[in-house]
Amino acid sequence: MKVSVIMPVYDAADTIAVQLDALAGQAWDEPWEVIVIDNGSTDDSMRIVEAYRDRLPNLQILRSTERQGPAHGRNVGARAASGTYLAFCDADDEVADDWVARIAAAVEAHDFVASRMDAERLSDGRALATKGNKRQQTGLIEYTYVRYLPFAGTCGLAIRRDLHDAVGGFDESMRYLEDCDYCWRVQLAGTPLVFAPEALVHIRHRDDPRGMYAQALNWGEYNVVLLKRYREHGMPAPSWTVGPKLWWRLVTRLPGLRKQANRDRWMWALGYRVGQVRGSIKHRMFAP
Which of 62, 124, 176, 267 has the fewest CB atoms found within 10 Å of its own CB? Predict the structure, then answer.
């Protein structure tokens, strides 16, 4: 087997058929497989997956409920994989119709690669107004809190199997931002991350305000975990002025909150800042 496509699933009945249709429609002459890992779904996700056995002949369905989180699911899938290369996708996205062939060519050439992302097809107008469509459109994601290594979202990542094994896979203690942590560990181990714009993944932004706020809150907290972890790996300390500037920016945007898009962006930024404070207290790491 040349490529193993790995997809963790948790309660994705509303979206997973779109991704499975996309995978079933791939045209590539090399041997490849799809590994779906159920992480304790309580909806009809697995019944939907089972219906694709005829359309995805090399489909594996695994169940792993001993630990929650996509990092755990991806590691379970990687251990069961027979491919020389591992490619990761998510149950709420949609890969382009030539994605497997494109990502396979890219990872064979560069060992560790990230797909291009586009949010317009699957995200509604409110979600796009809040989060935009620039993330991983023209290159890797730059870490902007301080200057450090680039990273990419896990949906659309691909890596040579032995490199994944060498870094121990995904850190299952990272409930959030595990993609950033994984990309940094692979790069620090000596393998650069390369952007593969020809491999396209259509991503889906969260479209409910509570979900967006919760995501921002968790990302803010786990950003502190990253700061604490990577200081000993050359990450510079953030300036103490960063925090006050970001809080002041929230204050200056208050007059614009009459518009829904401004309110959504403001709540996202607030959630991230509150998450940073929570993370600083919880993980005993000052993050301004």
Answer: 124
